[in-house]
Amino acid sequence: MKTVSNVYNLHILTCLSTSTSNFVKETPSKKYAVITVFSENHACEAMHACRTYSYVSEIQTGKIAVIAFYAADVTNKTISKYTELCPFVRLRPISLKQYPKYVSDLKNYRFKFLIVKEVLQEFDAILYGDSSVRLEPGATTETLTDLFKSMKTTFARQGIRMFTYASHYNYPVTHPLMYKYFHVPVEKMKKTVQLQATVFMVSNTESGHNVIDKVAKCAIEENCMAPKGAKVQCPFPEYTQNTKVVCHRFDQSAVNMRLIELYGTNLHLYYQESQLLNIVRMKTCSMP
């Protein structure tokens, strides 16, 4: 996994100029899917990401589906542009009306695992990626199908595979109220590096649902995932010192607690990087 913050990847931008006219439009099988989400302020970033999907052979042939959920603030103009650039992506509006009103605040990240839980019922396994996640088939011999196959082998028992980790431990970025919902001792949170919920893979199996169903339940509990007073901004260097709680990582903290609750502190049971995935977060963005 390569992480690039706030800069353009020149190689990717060169690829973005390539036409997608040769893309084969077929009806994807109900086996695997790539899922992503974007709002209007991340739409440009999402378009750059989705263009990289078109260079993946399994997506070109329709073997693997791509579904993008868009927020209520995304304009018709943006939807038209996205469809023009990435015609192979199935677009769906984010629908959270069936949940308590506080779930609709996207800044609390409650939506992510609710969407994952909903869509997972349609496929054997899904790869979730934020709008910043790009696919780089030219960077490795590993294929997207290989990643999905790992959910039937290496990660079959766990039902989930995380791909990247943060630069801090779990403890300083997890609100104390979270311990009411997840039975994880503070000592384990202090000794584990936090895995990022930016991109992960989950299988439609008992073990996969055993992870995400409780995280999704946490998302609709008012004081779980986004407890009152929780703040995402983490002061430096305090959040790196692992001595006190200074901020909260919402869905990321929740899924880490669930993984530790189920499988303990050996992160390699549910984490393995892949060079096929690349995170490119853009502070400024020009439409492709």
From TrEMBL:
Pfam families: DUF1647 (PF07801)
Protein name (Swiss-Prot/TrEMBL): Glycosyltransferase family 92 protein
Organism: Panagrellus redivivus (Microworm)
